[in-house]
Amino acid sequence: MDTDLLETFVTAARTENFRRAALLLHRSEAAVSRQVQALERSLGQSLFVRQGRGLYLSEAGAAFLPHARAVLDSWQRAREATRPLPPGGRLTVATSAMVAEVYLPRHLARWAALHPGDELDLDVLPSAEIPAAVASGKVDVGIGRHLIFLPGLAAGRLWQSRLSLVVGTPPGDHDSPLPTAQEVLGGGVLFTHSHPGYWDEILATLRRHGFEPRPVAVRQVAVTRRLVEEGLGASLLPRAAVARELAEGRMAEIELGGVPLPVDSVYLMVRRGPKPPEVAEWITELTQGRPLPLGG
Question: Which pLDDT tens digit goes with each residue over 130-157?
Fold first, then answer.
């Protein structure tokens, strides 16, 4: 059976939406629909039913799902077992721009020094696309800020950073009192959605605590950071991503009192099963030898 059809079915079953499945699989919604239909013809069963705008597994689809997952897991283990290792070793890592900038430089420097004969390819992707890139075998390792469990994927949290409410500081002005959280968030511009997962939760929490910011979605940490530094608005950014700006006085942190905020996490993602030597050594480099349970 075509494993590509199975992967499409499993992803569509998890998302209950052909459009979201298409985004995760890097293909068109029409292609996802055609692949599901091809699988249904092969099985002689309808795997999904539509109710209004919803898409749900049929009774046959629910019965078939665990078997499809088992086949995909077995196929992935077979690929890992037979994949040839290039001379000198080669490692392909998918990561987000923020992680590459903030967390990886010291690890990349050590890796280059310890593995002079190995190739390392760094593929910078949006965080939401990294899990699918790892699960599909397009890359060996993923390091990103957004985790979606897919068939064959194992993951663990590498690093975490608290969120800081930050504003820009005018050059040379280090004596003026900082604005209060109410002054910053009481109708002022708040740059949002630099993370694909937690911003809706943050906005709801701020409103419950009496804040009414004016959200402006900017989907990259680096762009958000620059806009904040230019004094165009505020944002909640991982402390690790603005540590230099805060230390140099180009940004200031505003206290938010007792407002609970999520933690910004960075996850390591690999495929389940035996790890090639390069992958195992890269994991050791990132964790510095500390235990990292990988769930999936």
Answer: 999 999 889 999 999 988 888 888 888 9
* Per-residue model confidence as pLDDT tens digits over 103-119: 999 888 888 888 887 88
- Domain-wise residue ranges, the chain: 3-82, 90-160+265-287, 163-262
The CATH class that applies to domain 163-262 reads alpha beta
Q: CA 41, CA 44: separation in Å to the nearest integer?
A: 5
Cβ-contact 76, 6 below 8 angstroms: no
Q: Which residues of the chain have pLDDT under 70?
A: 1, 79-89, 172-175, 296
Q: Who contacts 162 (Cβ-Cβ below 8 Å, separation ≥6)?
A: 238, 239, 261, 263, 264
Orientation angle between helical segments 105-114 and 277-287, nearest 10 degrees: 130
Q: How many CB atoms lie within 10 A of CB 291?
A: 6
pTM of the model: 0.67
Structure tokens at 237: 């950014």
- Please state which CATH class domain 90-160+265-287 belongs to: alpha beta
Could you tell me the two tokens for 45? 């069963």
CATH code that applies to domain 3-82: 1.10.10.10
Relative to beta strand 119-124, strand 141-144 is: unpaired
